[in-house]
Amino acid sequence: MLNNYGIDIWSDENFIIEDGLAKVNHKCKPSLISLVRQIREQDFKGPLLLRFPHITKKQISTLYDTFNNSISEYNYKGNFNAVFPLKVNQLPNFVHPLIKNGEEFNYGLEAGSKAELVIAMTYNNSNSPITVNGFKDKEMIHLAFIAKSKGHDITVIIEGLNELETIIQVQSETNLPCPNIGLRVRLHSGGSGLWAKSGGINSKFGLSSTEIIEAYELLEENKMLEFLTMIHFHIGSDMNSIKPLKKALRESGHIYAELKNLGATSLNNINIGGGLAVEYSSYERTRFYSLREFASDVIFTLKDIAKQKGVDEPNIFTESGRFISAGSTVLITPVLELFSSEYDLKHLNLKENNPPLIAELNALYTDMIKRTAYEYMHDAMDHMESLLTLFDLGYIDLQDRSNAEILTHQIIKKAIALLEVEDYEDLKKLDENIQEKYLLNFSMFQSLPDYWGIDQEFPVMPLTHLDKKPTRSASLWDITCDSDGELPFNSQRPLYLHDVNLEKEDYFLGFFNVGAYQDTLGMKHNLFSQPTEVNVVFKENEVKLEKIIESQKIIDILDDIDYDTRDIKDRLKENLDTNTYQILKKYLNENSYLKTTWS
Ligand SMILES: *Cc1c(COP(=O)(O)O)cnc(C)c1O
Fold first, then answer.
1. Are 135 and 156 contacting, i.e. CB atoms less than 8 angstroms apart?
2. Is residue 237 within 6 Å of ligand 1 at its C-beta?
3. Which CATH superfamily is domain 53-320 in?
4. N or C: where does the chain have the smaller number of CB atoms within 10 Å of the terminal CB?
């Protein structure tokens, strides 16, 4: 049985398997391994982050096209707008192409902090909207006024009445033009999925109905109603079902209509936040709606409410981030080691007279044929248990123990090879005991923080060997010295990889859909920094590697955490001859990831 690692579920046809290789399904369809080799030839070793701006572009146009089609279909009078929430990925290699690719749609940016607002007001396309969410102080609100006076179409969405009071204050203290104002509503309907707490009556964010009325009155008193343009909600990330969205739409749609009927004449936008889900699993679909369904539900519901309450159909804003960015980035990790390679037959050193159980293991190994493979493998594992007990009691020596370990591993390997894994189901029963551990040159904490923190599954697949049966049930280990840096084998969602000899060939794993949230959430645990990243750009029929940013040098990492690097160098220089110090200096100027023959 060949394994396609669930690519039909998670790749959205961005990647395909062809000739045993994982390929980018675009233009000249380069294999990922060919890109990796090109980068490594330039001496960038260690893990890599490959970014594919054409995938981001595809997501942006899919989002706009789907909504605009629904708008025509329902003859909806409002228009469709979208902004990218910078929280999801703020890095320049991602953001610059995003802004360029979004220009034709007037795709804008959403900021949730002062630093993100600075990115938005510096780089946003001039005709595209900016929305500002999150908790704000006077300085952040002042920043929004400054953005407005630079000519940006900016809407400050308030999370509480105090923010509105601050807007009124800044308005009176400066003579800058006032940005548009949005109200984030605290819904009584909650979200779905892991992040449901972003919505709901007890949510961290938004105004209660009493506060909405107060906000309206405050704006009216201060003759600022003309700036109230938007109602906003966000029910949480990665919604697996559309039902909570429909409820939230009804609730916020009625709030919009009521305020409009009260006299909020400039109010003409509903911002439905983010939450569009991405398929992360290699085993089953987890998103139970299509984008088309999502768009029609939004349009249909808002149209219905507008009709019922006799108000204009609102323009629609979305802030989906995960949907736009996840697919654009692939993390590639070299496999450094298969742990069982320590148990090579060449190290076997049998004695003239071996303890009976070891002699038995040797016989199991030699005599095993396909028919007896399961049985002998079981026997071997039982013997191994007993031999370890004998060692603890002092009845066998270290050489015996080494022989026992080698023979047991070889028996397992031979059994798997003989069985040719025709029978995954049967083999699965044994999986827990016959796993292979793959050591990967990366840090889970830096590159897959959501796996470490919230058990987020990410699709994983080798870049090569895809025309061969994977025969080893795999657990994956990173190079941090933290035992949490492991993706253990899970028999419910088994990962099978190939039995490779790393002395003869290289083997890389790709983790897909890592473009949302992982980059800046990643942490420098053990002082491993962001991997080397590269933008892969397609020009006609060739591929260009652009904007290579090398993983941080050791000395810069230390500088970042506020060590005095001059002091470090001075101290290191002491008691070393010049030559040795030069070598040491070279090491300080390299990154922390491991460098072995292949890695
Ligand atoms: C996080 C966030 C988003 C993005 O959510 P996704 O699930 O990534 O689409 C949008 N809007 C707001 C207000 C957010 O806080």
1. no
2. yes
3. Alanine racemase (3.20.20.10)
4. N
